[in-house]
Amino acid sequence: MKPVVVVHGGAGVIVHENAEGYRSGVKRAALRGYDILRQGGDAVTAVEEAVVVLEDDPHFNAGNGSVLNEEGDVEMDAIIMDGKDLSSGAVSAVRCIANPIKLARLVMEKTDHMLLTCEGASRFAKSQGIPEIPGETLISERSKERWKKNLNAGSKPNTTCQIGMGTVGAVAVDSQGNVACATSTGGLSNKMVGRVGDTACIGSGGYADNNIGAVSTTGHGESIMKVTLARLILHYMEQGMSLEEASDAGLNFMKTRVDGIGGVIAVNSAGEWTAKFSTKQMSWAAVKDENLHCGIYLGENEITPLPETV
Ligand code: GLY
Asked: Which residue has its alpha carbon closest to ligand 1 atom 5?
């Protein structure tokens, strides 16, 4: 089986001056995941490591660069899933760690549970030797500015995809034909303390099943949860739709049924892949057959670079 990895850096509106940062970030993440697969690594490790690259990059709303809740603190959600046996691990509303996706993987592999939250997740992180870091180190100037702007405007948390929403995710197929997904986010800017979004919820923020494929989602979390977007797309694939048709159908259903917008990346067990979105933009990158593809814009606005050989 030829390995493939696809990553996204979030659906929303990406202002021109940030476009290059998003583009280079998703490329680096996809190449990191592909390197692991090329060396015979498994899909779970590839998606985890690709997401770590994006969590460490302050352009994106995950890990370092996460948006702030109503009190000006970072609370993050993440999920990882192994399509081999449907095992999954997730964390929600976690603070003061650099890479929530690593903690999600530990939940999957070292506990009998699938989702740990808040204080319990922190205690588990400590027990696993994950260092606690000062919360401020995760806060970028951009997220602080946005938080202040929202606070002054007295606005509610984003209900549509506004500038740099930036949840991150990855899906992969390894040389053994196993699929996996990983998704990580700071959630919605100025959200209520304790708010948990779609990212931590299996079937919403992501889903992976070797018999079908894997999906990672981004967009308005409450809308994604209402339609369980990741599992919905895989359901459409089970019904015989192509990856593209299923992804479009899932996004269309979310728009028509609950007026929600977002984006998805998906692979199937045959190693085909897609990146689709109903927002203005979504940064994404994919590597297959030693070719790196990436994009940000929709349709005719897309400046599609030629695939690069890696
Ligand atoms: N999709 C990210 C969130 O709403 O939390």
From this structure: 187
